[in-house]
Design goal:
alpha/beta; Molybdenum Cofactor Biosythetic Enzyme, Chain A; 6 helices; Molybdenum cofactor biosynthesis protein B; 19% strand; 179 residues; single chain; globular; 6 strands; six-stranded mixed beta sheet
Length: 179
Amino acid sequence: MAIDESLPFRPVRIALLTISDTRTPANDTSGDILAKRIENAGHVVARRDIAKDDLHILEPLLTDWIDDAGIDAIVSTGGTGLTGRDVTPEAVERLKHSRDARDIPGFGELFRWLSFKTIGTSTIQSRACAVVARGTYIFALPGSNGAVKDGWDGILAEQLDSRNRPCNFVDLMPRLREI
C-alpha cells in the first residue's frame, strides 16, 4: 500500500450485508471476517444484516441503504455465483440503471485476478462486481471466507483508506453525486 502517513485518516461508514439462504448470525463467518477487518481498519460498521438470495428482498434493502446518509459504502458477501439462487449481481445491476449510477468494472476484474492466485481457474465462477449508485459505493463479494479476505485485503483496504496514493475511493465521495 502507498499510504501517506502525513494525511489524516477518514473513517468510512460501511454497511455489511451477507446474502445467503443458509447463513444466520451464529454461522456468518464471512460476515464476521469482514466486520472485523472493517473495524480493525478504523472504519465503522454502520449496519449489518443477513438477507436471502431474492431480488424482491435485495433490491429494496440495497435501495434503502444507498439512500441512508449514514452509509458511505455497502459491502456484500454471497450470491455472486452461477446458480439460479445467486442474484446479487442482478440486484446490483438494477440499482445502476438510474442516471446517477456508474459501473466499476475494474473491481470485478481485479478481484478475479487476485482470486486466481488463491483458487486458480475456479475464480471464473465469480461474478463479483461493484457500482456507485446515488453517491454510495456497493461492492459485491463472493460468500467464501477466502473470497472476502481477497476482496478486503487486496482491494478495499487500500481503496477505502483516504491516505492511499495515488488515489482512493474516499477522495471521490464528495463528488459522487455530480451529474
